[in-house]
Amino acid sequence: MTGIEGQLWALLALFGIAAVVSVIAARDARIQYTIGLVVTGLLVAAVGPPVPDPITSEFILLVLLPALIFRDAVTIDAGALRANLAPILLLAVVGFCCSIALVAVASHALLGFPLAVAILFGAILMPTDPVSVVAIFEELDVPERLTLLVEGESLLNDGVAIVVYSTVLGVLEARAAGAGPAPLSDPVELLLDVSAGIAVAFVGGVVVGAAAGYLAAAVVAAADDQLTAVIVSVLTAYGVYLLLHQFGASGVIGTLAAGLVLGAENGHADIAPEIHFSIGFAWDIVAVLANTIVFVAIGLITPVDLLFAYVPAIAAVIVIAFLARAVVVYPLLELYNWWQTQSIPHTFQHVLAWSGIHASVSVALALDAREQLPAALADEFTALLFGVAAFTLVVNGTTMPRLVAWLDLSRDDPHRRLYDALVGRLHGVDAALETADSLLEDDDMPESVYVEITEAYRNERATLVDATERLLRAYPDLKAHERRRSQRRVLLAEHEAIKRATQQAEIRGDVGEQLLADIERDLDRIVTDERSSHSLTATEQPPDWQTLLDAVSVDLDLGLEDGRASRHRDVFDPNHEDGGDGNGDSH
User: Fold this and answer.
1) How far is CA 511 from CA 536, 543, 547, in A?
2) Pick from 6, 272, 406, 556: most CB atoms within 10 A?
3) Which residues are CB-contacts of 435 (< 8 A; sequence separation ≥ 6)?
4) Cβ within 8 Å of residue 489, ≥6 positions away
5) Rounded-to-integer distance, Cα 255 and Cα 240, Å
6) How wide is the angle at C-alpha 414 spanned by C-alphas 135 and 469, nearest 5°?
7) How far apart are CA 401 and CA 412, in angstroms?
8) How many whole angstroms separate alpha carbon 544 and alpha carbon 550?
9) Main-chain dihedrals φ then ψ at residue 232, nearest 5 degrees
10) What are the residues whose beta carbons fall under 8 Å from the beta carbon of 27, sequence distance 6 or more?
């Protein structure tokens, strides 16, 4: 049997296991697909005959990882990612590097690893894998922002992990060859090497990836063909990854940047919606296949007999990994909340701390390290890293639904689902009507066909609007939730407009800062759910603009009905009543 034939048989066995797990998961909603794959692989490895490694580290890093990164990037909401980029970068770069440092110090002290080896260990151990967590989030319908934070952090810290790993491994190889300084004698130089490696990898990855993404989007728009679009996306994903990998930059960051740019450009008018759908659908299938291979293989190649030999050390590393993540997540996000308007609630922080599942990238780097390190150290690395991967996948993955339920983050109730279905369909109908109007205006649709199509859509729209309003009247809690969500979006638009006016010197800086502070105070009330409505009583602090009016004794009849300004009437003029003539009628 040839090498290629053996690989094909191994992949066939993987998908055979996956088929069994898929059937069981489809019949029992309590079984999560990816976790089921790992557990089944572990059982086969524990009680079955010895199984040769079905995949190599190169196969994961060069074949599977680009597919998983690109799929997440091309389908993620680029606008939402941009809005939450600050906390994601804080966790994925600053927090991740701090976690590596904490793991390095602990493993150096407790396990006796040399400093450079301890840093290498931390870089392999700490990358997070969002697949099983995000799948659980989708089932439980948790807030989109929480899903985005988990997914975005993982996408970026994978790139940082590979850069740190490659840099430290290069230093160790140079030391072994006598061509470089001993890391233990010059930790500052090691730190500078790692920092420079991260900077070069990020800058190179972003520049090359973004350029490739724009070029791919232009080709897709010009071709206007679904098959061409899918082929170009494959060429972009793997071309960018391999090119940057070859030249020492971050292929993960480059592929991520290319996918984000192509995904964002897909939303523009130059690229038809069906082409956007084809790209996303194709990469969804690729991601399912890639994840299936990875998670079955993790179970199969876990050295069960080796794990038993290192049980105490594995238990210690599990505790170290959790503490290193928690010690970083909570302080950094509290710091972020201190200087940002869109705070991250403590419930989100608990989930982020517990979402530290260490799987695909950790396993790939562990397999690679096994080939690079001395045999004794390689066995210890393999046992510790595979032990943590198996534990976090099984324990963190299976307990995540309970944590989400305990924190009351799930919105999976029938009324909410019905509302989302109505609103989602309403968006679809509006888009269809807008497209029909555009086609008629461009003479690309006969008027008789336009009338038939739009009449059906307008009737459906009226039905949807009526059903939505009746649902909101029937369930006040749902309406209150949507009111707060809408108010938050409106306030953020206010905040952005005043901030822009301040930056452009249209208003004084100190005045702009105070106006922004007023809005931020209102946002805090909504975000923390301290209030269910947006009214302001006379005992609360008035906004700055009304304080200024009162100070200069300007009496204005604003004549406003329901709105932001009217909520301050009783503060501006405590004797003012809704009816100016005293009869109770509103203005």
Assistant:
1) 21, 11, 12
2) 272
3) none
4) none
5) 6
6) 125
7) 12
8) 10
9) -65, -40
10) none
Q: Which residue has the tokens 């509103």?
A: 586
Element (H, E) at 234: helix 226-246
Would you call 49 exposed, middle or buried from its count of C-beta atoms within 10 A (0-12, 13-18, 19+)?
A: exposed
* Structure-token pair, residue 50: 């010895």
- Give the separation between CA 386 and CA 364, rounded to whole angstroms: 10
Report the distance separating Cα 153 and Cα 353, nearest Å.
12
List the end-to-end C-alpha distance of the chain, in Å, as a whole number: 88
The encoded tokens of residue 184 equal: 């233990």
Backbone angles phi, psi at 394, to 5 degrees: -80, -50
Where are the alpha helices (H) located in 392-446, listed in sequence order? 397-406, 414-441
pLDDT tens for each residue of the chain, 587 residues long: 556 777 778 788 888 888 888 888 777 766 778 888 888 888 888 776 666 666 788 888 889 889 999 998 898 888 888 888 999 999 999 999 999 999 999 999 999 998 888 999 999 999 998 887 887 787 777 888 899 999 999 988 888 888 888 888 877 777 666 655 444 446 677 777 777 777 887 888 899 999 999 999 999 989 888 899 999 999 999 999 999 988 877 888 899 999 999 988 765 657 777 788 889 889 999 999 998 988 888 888 888 888 999 999 999 999 999 999 999 999 999 999 888 767 899 999 999 999 988 888 898 898 888 888 888 888 899 999 999 999 998 899 889 988 988 888 876 667 777 888 888 899 999 999 999 998 888 888 898 899 999 999 999 999 999 988 988 888 887 888 788 878 888 888 888 888 888 888 888 888 888 888 888 777 766 655 533 333 433 345 566 655 655 655 545 454 444 444 444 433 333 344 444 444 444 33
Residue type for 365, please? L
pTM here is 0.70
Q: How far apart are CA 175 and CA 371, in angstroms?
A: 17
| Residue linked to tokens 């390689």 | 378
Q: Which residues does 62 contact at the CB level (< 8 Å), separation at least 6?
A: 241, 242, 245
Compute the distance between CA of residue 168 and CA of residue 73 in angstroms, rounded to an integer: 28
Secondary structure (DSSP) of 289-327: HHHHHHHHHHHHHS-HHHHHHTHHHHHHHHHHHHHHHHH
Give dist(CA 107, CA 115) in Å, integer. 9
How far, in Å, CA of 377 to CA of 353, rounded? 29
Residue 270 in tokens: 């130059």
Token reading at 487: 């108010």
CB 92 within 8 A of CB 335: no
